[in-house]
Write a structure and sequence with these properties.
about 290 residues, alpha/beta, Rossmann fold, N-(1-d-carboxylethyl)-l-norvaline Dehydrogenase, domain 2, 2 domains, eight-stranded mixed β-sheet, 8 strands, elongated, binds NADP nicotinamide-adenine-dinucleotide phosphate
């Protein structure tokens, strides 16, 4: 253990993967010297030269600070890393990606061990951490008091969005956004596959594709308003019946270009089901009803 660790540390960071390391660097850049721990020791030593204080064990790292930030691979690795460690009086801020139910379980688990718990979902990639103009932020949920107390420290690596006392709220927001991103990536993959064997260069399609996706995001707010009003036909410009008819052209083009329809087909099937159920005058909002079980 470094001699410095005998002083109280402003915070401890458990987990020095790509994200944990970026978080530590952001705190180091403003002069805070976190105590750090990683299962594989080499990563902690690399940060020590910049002022971080490596701890030999997770228990030592937790003991060094009242504020303990966790950023490990998944929920199971958090349980494994903190197993048997005294958390009495600690403020545990866990930025590990997990499900809402896992977050609620982890909050109860932490509170049973005498800690306050705040769950976090990071909406950024490591190069955006510590770079405010990059627009990265973290969703937080759980103890409001804990969030307010540590907000200044937590705001250093990225922006903060508090989502509520339910510990599952941050994960729910995080995963909703990541799920939408996954669908978008699927669409982008399909578009690039369509041109793969053509003369259209990916770099010439890219700005057009990005611009189009950007323009289409207007629909997010419109769909939200329709969901809240319960009227999915209000102000619809492109209705589901028309869009469903258009799907056939998309599928024939995929066939012509030698591209599998497997990414598009499930969503198209839902659109067609909604039309068959008599909702052809709506936009795509009604698909939400078919997804919720
Ligand atoms: N990277 C991103 O773009 C990004 C963006 C948003 C959110 N996140 C989230 O941030 C978290 C960390 O991501 P990352 O990019 O830092 O991942 P990473 O580079 O793969 O690092 C994973 C970290 O978890 C540790 N770990 C894994 N299993 C463990 C166990 N059983 N016990 C103790 N430590 C264990 C690893 O330790 P070792 O070094 O010993 O393997 C390492 O420190 C994840 O939940 C991820 O979803 C990441």
């Amino acid at each position: 253990m470094n001699d410095d660790t005998f002083e109280r540390s402003p915070l401890t960071v458990l987990g020095l993967g790509a994200m944990g390391t970026a978080l530590v660097r952001a705190w180091l850049a403003v002069g805070l010297k976190p105590t750090v721990w990683n299962r594989t020791p080499g990563k902690a030593e690399a940060l020590a030269s910049q002022g971080a204080r490596p701890a030999a064990t997770a228990a030592e790292a937790v003991a060094a600070s009242d504020l303990v930030v966790v950023c490990l691979l998944d929920d199971a690795s958090v349980v494994q890393a903190l197993d048997g460690i005294d958390l009495t009086g600690k403020d545990l801020v866990d930025l590990t990606t997990r499900t809402p139910a896992e977050a609620r379980t982890r909050a109860r688990w932490a509170e049973e061990r005498g800690a306050r718990f705040l769950d976090g979902g990071i909406m950024a990639v490591p190069p955006m951490i510590g770079v405010p103009e990059a627009g990265g932020y973290v969703f937080y949920s759980g103890s409001r008091a804990l969030f307010d107390e540590h907000r200044a420290t937590l705001s250093i690596p990225a922006g903060t969005e508090y989502t509520g006392e339910d510990p599952g709220a941050a994960s729910l927001h995080d995963v909703a956004l990541l799920s939408a991103m996954t669908g978008m990536f699927a669409g982008i993959a399909h578009a690039f596959a369509l041109i793969r064997k053509s003369d259209v260069a990916p770099t010439s399609l890219a700005p057009l594709l990005a611009g189009w996706l950007n323009a289409m995001t207007q629909s997010v707010q419109e769909q939200a308003e329709r969901l809240e009003s319960g009227d999915y036909t209000r102000g619809v410009v492109s209705n589901l019946a028309m869009m469903s008819e258009g799907n056939a052209t998309l599928l024939r083009t995929a066939q012509e270009q030698g591209v599998t329809p497997e990414l598009l087909a499930p969503f198209m099937a839902l659109m067609e089901r909604r039309v068959a159920d008599g909702h052809g005058e709506e936009d795509v909002t009604g698909v939400v009803e078919l997804l919720v079980r």
